């Protein structure tokens, strides 16, 4: 079902492209929320995560749940903001920005501002839907994470189609490069960190490493795992704060 719907949405975009048709904003958004692949991706992720298929969860996918719609819309619009310029140069179907410009008679700057406002509105609707207790929590988390990931990837341009730029630097600092932490000693000679939040982070890292030491099966890999966790957590918490 999800694959059939996805293929139909791509077929619609192909017809628009080859006929030179510029859809209205409404037409584009209705189709783009499907063609971006959000509903199909979340359906497969829901199953692969081992979540229980209930009547409620199946109905959400079957009937096009609001939470999936708004998450997919944020994903599509974020994608358009980051990639529309490059895609239009190499030849592709008109994106939301182009649709706004042609149909509303506005400039590119104004069209991008309209997209940003629509993203903000979509986040309000997504947050409202995520607060409903009737939805499976796993579905809520997937919807929120997909929208967050899309905005992170496309906030500085095409974070997937290119291997350079801010996203590459961000991932390198997050995964590869260690973050140096300034440290001092108090009068008793005890190691102290200059920031209380940093002290809390390092304390919890230490607790985690102590727990790891209790697993003898990981003894050979302990040093690698310890360093990897330390680099990852300090990158996530410290690098993003400063």
From TrEMBL:
The protein, known as: Terpene synthase metal-binding domain-containing protein
UniProt-listed GO biological process terms: terpenoid biosynthetic process
Keywords per UniProt: Lyase, Magnesium, Metal-binding
Superkingdom of origin: Eukaryota
Species assigned in the record: Castanea mollissima (Chinese chestnut)
All residue ranges annotated as the Terpene synthase metal-binding domain in the record: 2-125
GO molecular function annotations of the record: magnesium ion binding; terpene synthase activity
